[in-house]
Amino acid sequence: MVLATIDPTTRLAASTSLEDLETPCLVLHADRMDRNVQRLRSRLDAMGVSLRPHLKTAKSIEVARRVMSSPEGPATVSTLKEAEQFAAAGVRDIIYAVGIAPAKLARVAELRASGVDLVVTLDTVLQAQAVAEASRQSGTRIPAIIEIDCDGHRSGVRPTDQAQLVEIGQALTAGAELRGVLTHAGDSYKGGGVEALRLYAETERLAVVEAARILRNAGLPCPVVSVGSTPTAHHATDLAGVTEVRAGVFVFFDLVMAGLGVCQIDDIALSVLATVIGHQREKGWIITDGGWMSLSRDRGTGKQAADQGYGLVCDMDGAPYHDIIVADANQEHGIIAVRPGSNARLPDLAVGDRVRILPNHACATAAQHETYHVVRGRSHAVEARWTRFGGW
């Protein structure tokens, strides 16, 4: 694995600290991030499967360089904006893992013409025909990967639908390139414990392996067999027949992943730094400037055993207060309170004091910000600012 060093253009003056930052803002604990990446990479290396990280959570060149196995990739993206940004930074091996809209194929062709091996995703004959036609018009075979529905969660072709699989494959090879199959075990986010997560992982594997078998038996190529979700990547016990694993939120983790048992609270690498701006003592509230515009409105832990509200509140070192959550949020106001049913006490925080709030969903929270403020260990020193981008 290639670990990038801090880019000197992002390094800050030694005096910059968390206390100096405007709030709310996004803090990235680099040590935790590096540990999370190494944990999954080591696991997959031992199973003989490559990691194609999903960069939709990070949306950052600096983070991508610390997650990919080389500066050229491989990588997974969820928007063409991501593909363009990472391509401009030298990434050359990219899967765009969202169903392709025919109107976007001109942008795909432009990226491929610049030397990027960009693969599109689809699950219908109509899309396959559009990709084949765009290939003929551009004079180059655009590679596509067929999405497989392994659990009825969202998009994809059921692996039992042999006729549709073969028809899509044949439509692609009429002008484009069939690169393989991929799936995403969305049901793994339902949790259920270790054994349930292992079952989700095996169901995910069997779905794409069977789809690949069907295509190959029909005389069609299927070099790539790709699976991907953070819960299944950490619980698969057998990846026979799989060529790569895509996962994304594992880089940072979040409270949903902790609630599923995929990580621990102290593995979560992202937090939102917020400032206390008031009190409602008779209500048991502390008010901060960290509302849902900085935390997101994601309430992904609401159906888990521990409902974390809009986020789990920590001190400035990143250590969680016992049973203190962001119980409610308005656009620019966060309401800190004791978790319902707990006999914990609110921390003694004055106006101007600061807290760090762990997110329910790292992707959604990070999307509210333009910059990662990078720290290490228990230090408050901000050693770098890493730019992140948004858009489509």
Automatic annotation (TrEMBL):
Pfam families: Ala_racemase_N (PF01168), D-ser_dehydrat (PF14031). GO terms for molecular function: D-serine ammonia-lyase activity. GO terms for biological process: D-serine catabolic process. CDD domains: PLPDE_III_DSD_D-TA_like_1 (cd06812). It comes from the Bacteria. InterPro entries: Ala_racemase_N, D-amino_acid_metab_enzyme, D-ser_dehydrat-like_dom, D-ser_dehydrat-like_sf, PLP-binding_barrel. Gene3D superfamilies: Alanine racemase, D-serine dehydratase-like domain. Keywords: Lyase, Plasmid. Transmembrane segments: none annotated. Belongs to the DSD1 family. This is Metal-activated pyridoxal enzyme. It comes from Sinorhizobium fredii (strain NBRC 101917 / NGR234).
